What does this fold into?
Amino acid sequence: MAAEDDEAEKMLAAYPHDRVRGKADRLRRIREALDAGTGVEDLLQAVTAYATEGAGFTRSKVSFSDNWFRSGRWRAYVEDIAKSREETKAKQAEALAGLAGWVTDRHPLRRHITPGQVNALLAAKLVTQAQIQAAGLRS
It folds into this structure.
């Protein structure tokens, strides 16, 4: 419980300082969010995103921390973070597939594939070690 309180304090350090109130309520709400499966890092990113978004607003347009957590407005931010993470994974997978095509087709640009990318291709099982060697690459 002390560790969760420390995490909650970190989250609220990112929140606009003049809009933080209701310590007991917000700590309980943060614990509920974490117990429901929301990751600490995701919730911290949500708080940071909200604080950044509201930085240019007058303080009357920024929710108090207890209200923001109570109303569940943080959920939309966590969902956006998860969606962004999935889009990033999809783009990375697409890029790896393109590199795999370079290896299998022996495309002239294959020589620019880095050892780290070779390792990622092998880990994703998009190419074999034999294909890497045939393309003149190494991990």
